[in-house]
Amino acid sequence: MSATILAFALVAGQIMLALAMVAASYRILRGPRAQDRVLGMDALYLNAMLLLLVFGIGSGTTLYFEAALAIGLLGFVSTVAMAKFLMRGEVIE
């Protein structure tokens, strides 16, 4: 019974995260301002990271967890760099 519930929860989580990624992609493409696009990109990488974690839970391999960690680190750095660029017009001082 619990394996069935886990499988259903994993599939439901994957579907919901995929829908959230579609919504974030829409915000990136149709955002009226650059700040909206940066927030859409931030939401997109976060949802991609969570989707990889759900895949890792389902498969039981550590490769997905390591990829999610790399996406999380690179996504945070890119969001900070874009925010700094929007604030000052330059990334490197």
TrEMBL record:
It is found in: Cell membrane. Pfam families: MrpF_PhaF. Keywords: Antiport, Cell membrane, Ion transport, Membrane, Transmembrane, Transmembrane helix, Transport. It is a multi-pass membrane protein. The chain crosses the membrane at residues 6-26, 38-57, 63-87. InterPro entries: MrpF/PhaF-like. Signal peptide: none annotated. Belongs to the CPA3 antiporters (TC 2.A.63) subunit F family. This is K+/H+ antiporter subunit F. It comes from Bosea rubneri. The lineage of its organism: Bacteria, Pseudomonadati, Pseudomonadota, Alphaproteobacteria, Hyphomicrobiales.
